[in-house]
Design goal:
This protein is mainly beta. 9% of the residues lie in helices and 63% in strands. Strand 8 (136-145) and strand 9 form a beta hairpin.
Amino acid sequence: MKMRLFVLSAGLMSMAVGQAYIDLNVGYPTTWDGIGVNVNGGYMFNDYLGVEGGIMHNLGFTMPDAAPFVGYTRLDAAAKGVLPLASVFALYGKLGVGSNTYHSWEGICPWCSDASNSNVGLFIAAGTQFNFSKTWSLNFEYSVVTGPNPGMLMFGGQFNF
């Protein structure tokens, strides 16, 4: 009985040392033009493992050999693994699911056809994190959802609650 209480207490204490965070990024797609903005919210269970959800919107781009689009939106949810290499530097990766929606120029460009489209795929990301304090950090990340979607190079900051 004492062993069960110890294991339960240890599990609850490990959850209590977790940390919620929010980050804001800006970036550029690797295959199309435009500028993307991204907001993520997450929870780190410990220094190495967490979960995260986010939304990214590309403010406008033109696809090669196609009509111009007004926007591209991605929703994602992923597990996050972190490899701290020093107190101020870490590498991380994310793996999960992402959903992409493309919004056409319909109503803005009379000669462009409506080509709105959505798809779901595997969300993959890798990045670096530079910690200025326990509260603030900068990150640089590459992310993509499998399929005919642009990769995104993002740069931003993270605030830990």
